[in-house]
Structure formats: structure tokens, C-alpha cells
Amino acid sequence: MAMRAITAALARLPAFLSAIFERPAGGLEAEEGRAAGTVQTFAVISVGTTFVFTVAYLMRPDQTTGPLVLLSTGTLIAFIANLIVVRSGRQLVGAIMYLTIATVGMLYMAQLFGWRTGQHLYLITSAQLVFLMFTDRQRGWRWVFVVGSAAAFIYTQLGAPPVGPYSRAGDATISTIFAVNAIGTATLMFILSVVAHYRAGAAQARAAELAAQAEYLANTDPLTGLANRRPISARLEALASLDGARYCVAIADIDRFKALNDAHGHACGDRVLAALGARLRGQLRTTDALGRWGGEEFIVVLADTGIDEAGGIMERMRSLVAGTPVECGEHVHAVTMSVGVADGVADSMSHRVVKRADDALYDAKLAGRDRVKVRALGEPDSVHPAARRGR
Q1: Which residues cross the membrane (predicted)?
Q2: Which among 194, 243, 292, 308 is most buried, taking Cβ atoms within 10 Å?
Q3: How far apart (Å, rounded) are the C-alpha atoms in residues 45 and 40?
Q4: Which long-range contacts (CB under 8 A, 24 or more apart) does 376-384 make?
């Protein structure tokens, strides 16, 4: 079973390595998956390297029963068990096992070879490795192993002998071994730093993407895909406070929409709203703003536009809607809309422009619907109760 697990893990090593650098997706499950992928990757690497050392030690007759063989064989078995555990879906247990095995192994190696050989330098990498093997919810375990690895490093530096019983070579050889271990540690730290930097950048990009999605949802009507009241109101306030600006506001209301909903259902009504939103959006200039004002009403904000020009733009829109029926299942609906247009100036009173456009809309309703009416500056406000009831 163990050999099958090793073979399967080695076959998936490229995928494991890719998982370390993959762009993070959202959710706890995805985060645990990335952490588990990191544990698996290092477990596979450790199984391979430990196996090579075990074979090398066994080929030296004078040390076949020595501590090196016992250490290497025990570590190999432990890493194989670690690989099986993490592949079974136990990411947290796997991470704890791996770091414990590695830390204990480094401590023992420092006792056998001495701290001058630099075997314990690899303990420094735990400070980076814990951030890849544990999730944010497991940050307590991160600090356990950061502190534990630091304590182990200090102990080996101060408590282990300078030269152990298995480092009887001369100073030149010991210096060479130290240099190899130092380079290995630095290389591993560099790789882990790159991975951590990439993960942090990818996480920031994901956060920015989610923030943009949240902003979009906060400002968008989900049915029509048009802006909702929030961005439209902001646009109106900006125009109303801009010195010398002139603009117009148009409010369009679908005629007899309640009757359509009653006769064919709200799903059909939603289909009509979405279709009209798409048609109106295609008729606007880049400087204009279109939104769903509520219910069956749409609002258009026309920047740097006079009342006559705005009336012409909305007449073309009204004509387009009236001339293009909307299909809804087996039904085809001839839809019309009434439109009210009003102009405004930079007086910081955008709500007054909206009120006059609303009054103009009711003028259109009273005049028989399916038409555009305007309310220019200076015309008196009015209320049309009959039109409000009969939309």
C-alpha cells in the first residue's frame, strides 16, 4: 500500500508543483486544498531524498547498524505515512506531521554531525513553510511551529556539539558541508519567498476582483443589468453641482405593465423589462447614463444636452420600443412606453429635475400614452392623480 501511494504521488508531482503556484480560488475548501497540495509536494520530495540517503547509508558496511541508518529509515517511513495521511484528506494532520518529522530530524542530525555542518539551517525555512501548509483558520498552528522551529534552531546552535561523532572529517570538509547546507537553505528560502509573494499577489488580485464584483452588484439592477438608483443619483448630483453644466432627465414608463403581468405572469413581465433595458442601452451616447428607476420605470440622464435635443433622443427610443414587439414564450407583446423629459442646471437641486420629468411623464399618460412630453425650466409643477392611478 505504501509503495502504491509513493508511485501515485510521484506520478502527480508535476500537478502538485503546479498547485503551489495556482491562483487561489475563494472558499475555505479551496484554501485547504492548496495547503494540502503544498504538504503533498514536500512530502513527495522528502520521501525521494530520504530514500536516496537511506540507500547510501546502507551501502556503507561500517554504518549499517548505526544511528544514521535508523534515522534515515525511520524518517522515510514517517514521510510515507505523512503522504498517505495528507492524500486521505487530512490536511491539518498532514501539515503537523510533516513539520514535526522535519524538525525532529534536523535536531537529531545536528547531534550526529554537529552544528558546524549546518544541518540545522533548514529549520529557518519553517518560518515560510508554515504559511503555505496551514490555512488562515489554522494560524495558531503556524505560530506553534514558528516558535518551535526557532527554539530548535537556538538549541542546536547552543546545545549541540560543534562537531558530532559522524563529522570526524577535517575543517575543510566540514566547511564544504556547511556551504552546501547553507546554499540549500538559501535556495529553499528563495523558492518559498517567491511562492509566498505570488500567493499574496494572487490573493490581493482575488480580493480586488471580489470587491469589484460587490461594487457591481451594489450598483446594478440584477434583472436588466442596468444601473440602479445609487449610481444614477450620484450622476445627477455630480451634474447638478458642476458649474455651467446643463443636462436633461427623462423618465420612461412601460404602458399598462400591470395588465401585462396580470395576464401573462411576472416571468413574462421580467422578460419585457430585460428586453427594453437592452434596447434602450444600445441607443445612448457614452456620456449618457441609463438605469432602472424602479418597477417598470427607466431613467435616462443626458449630459450637456438641451431640452429639444433630449426630446428627440427619447422620441427615437420610444419609437424603437413601439416598433419592435417582445417575444415571451408563445406570446408576442407589442409594448409601448410613455416618456417625460425635463432639463436642469447646476443648482444642486437635481431632485427638482426628477420631479419635473415625473410630471412630464404623467402629462404623456394623460395625453394617451405612447408619447414623449417635456417640462422645460420655468414651467409650473403639477400633479395628475388620474394618471398616477392608470399608468
Answers
A1: 42-59, 66-86, 92-110, 141-160, 172-196
A2: 292
A3: 9
A4: 376/307, 376/342, 376/343, 377/307, 377/342, 377/343, 377/344, 377/345, 381/355, 381/356, 383/359, 384/359
Contact, 247 vs 343, CB < 8 A? yes
Q: What whole-number distance in Å separates Cα of residue 312 and Cα of residue 331?
A: 31
Higher per-residue confidence, 336 vs 244: 336
What is the side-by-side order of every strand in the sheet holding 337-345?
Answer: 289-294, 297-303, 246-254, 337-345, 372-375
Q: Which of the given ranges, 12-21, 50-59, 205-214, has the highest pLDDT on average?
A: 205-214
The pLDDT value recorded for residue 323 is 92
Q: What number of other Cβ atoms are within 10 A of residue 303's Cβ?
A: 17
Q: What DSSP element (H or E) covers 154?
A: helix 139-159
Confidence of residue 247 (pLDDT cuts 50, 70, 90): very high
H/E segment holding residue 84: helix 67-87
- Comparing 112 with 12, the larger pLDDT belongs to 112
Q: What is the mean pLDDT of residues 245-268?
A: 92
Domains of the chain with bracketed CATH:
2-217 (no CATH), 229-390 (3.30.70.270)
Residue 202 CB coordination number (10 Å) = 15
Integer Cα distance of 117 and 164 in angstroms: 9
Averaged over 327-352, what is the pLDDT? Answer: 89
